[in-house]
Every structure is written in C-alpha cells, then in structure tokens.
Amino acid sequence: MLKNEKILITGPASQVALPIARELAKHNEVYGLARFSDAKDRTRLEAFGVKCIRADLATDSFASVPEDCSYVLDFAVVKTGDFDYDLAANAEGLGRLMFHTRKAKAWLHCSTTGVYAYAGQKALKETDPLGENGHRFILPTYTITKIAAEVVARFAARQWNIPTTIARLNVPYGDNGGLPAYHLDAMASGAPVVAHPDKPNLFNPLHEDDYCAYIPKLLAVASVPATTLNWGGSVAVSVEDWCAYMGELTGLEVKFHHTDKAIGSVHIDVTRMHELIGPTKVDWHDGIRRMIQARHPELKLRK
Hints:
single chain, alpha/beta, Rossmann fold, UDP-galactose 4-epimerase, domain 1, 2 domains, 7-stranded parallel beta sheet
C-alpha cells in the first residue's frame, strides 16, 4: 500500500483509473488530470478527496500540475478518431508530462495488449510482434497511438532518467464495468454479443481488486530503461465461457453475432508478470458474480 505520497493520475475518471484513484486517495495526496468534459466526473472524484486539474494533454500547458509528484499513473487515452489530435494527446502529451514530472520516483504508463498483432489463440509474450488486431474497425486510432505512446515513454525514461513501467493491460473488469459488463448488458437487453468467428475468443480478465493491488508493485519494478510487461488475469478465459457462466447465473440467453470486424483473441503469456509482480487472486467466477450483483441487482442469481 502507498501512503503519504503525492500522486498524479491522468484519466482518473476512466473505468480502470477511478477505483485506483478512490483507493489511493484514502492514504495519499492524489491529483487527477483530465479534460473533465463531464462535470459529474469531477464531482465524483472530489468526493473521494482527489484534487482535480483540468487540462487537455494535446494542447494545454501543465503549469498547474505539481512538478514534485512522487508517482505518476498514466491512464489517459484519447480516442476521437482524429489521428493528429489523438497522437498529440496520447504520445506527445505523454512526453511533455513526463518532462514536467521528471522528478518523480516512478512512472506507470498504462498501455494495452491491443498493441499486439493478431495471433489467434497464441499466448502473446512481451517480445511478440506489434500490429493491428481488429481495433481499427471500432477505434481507428487506438492501436497506432498506443504503440506511439510506448515509444515516447521509453524515450522519456532514458532521456530524463525516469524509472518507468509500461504495463500492457488486457481485459479489466469489475463493479465499474469492462468487456464482460458490456456483454452482460447485451444479454440483459436481448441483444447479441459481438464476437470474432475465430473461436474461442481468449482473454485474460483482470478484476479491479487485483489491478488496484498491483499498483505499488508496478511502481516498484519501474526502471531505466523502462520495464515492459503484460498485465492481465493469471487465467485465460474465453468470451464464450464467461457469457455462458453469466447465463447460468442469471438465466439470460446468450446470442452471439460473429463478425471479423470484432476484436479477436488477445491471450497473453503471464510468465514475466508473475515473475515481477505475482499472480492474481480474484477467481474470475467470483469476479463475474460480484460484477453482476453490483451492476444488475435486479437479476436474481440462480446459484
């Protein structure tokens, strides 16, 4: 657990960062940096004790951002579809912010396993090829800007001697949402679950309890050159299996729509993750059950 630290979090209202900001604010001085286009996000964070700073990573100065933060957690990602703007925010903005906070003891840049080229059900290692894996049909700038952001983070770590961890996040989920939650919503509304035809669609779902617990460990392994590792659940689970399980628990019918425009399997090798930060603790069955109870309390669980 981190205590009595000065921590900056970018994208603090996002699905992943919000639970982290909430937990860290209990024992630390936490700043949240975002555009805050939705005033409700700011209000919610301030209720947790987060000090909010409004800024656009693509265009704004960081004059209002403390230079003496002990740790920086970068969870911001812009997905407008405009390549110039998204690269300016996700890559250039990252570099400018790393320079501004170069006194930090460690930086955590949250990347994505979406940077890997599609490889079917193969367990992807950190050394496997990067490339496109289906995000372009949904978020055309996402993969390219996330790869660019990793390059900038590695450069900045070396250039300004900033201990840095680049964590390639797989499928985060929990009470605050995630891919299984989208599928649950689809099932609850009678809509089909969209999935790739190359079955099974394997991922490594990571519950929010686990990813919150990993934050100090990810910062502890930060280094120069930057440490890069996969970040996901220790157990691979298919979309087909977690949807079937949600159906068993709720009685909801699962209808699939298979299309090659869906994101296919992104199954990761967790060997390096286990070596550096250890295995996950939340069993996916328990995590899914808790997610259903939190997000759809009207659904009576069968078991």
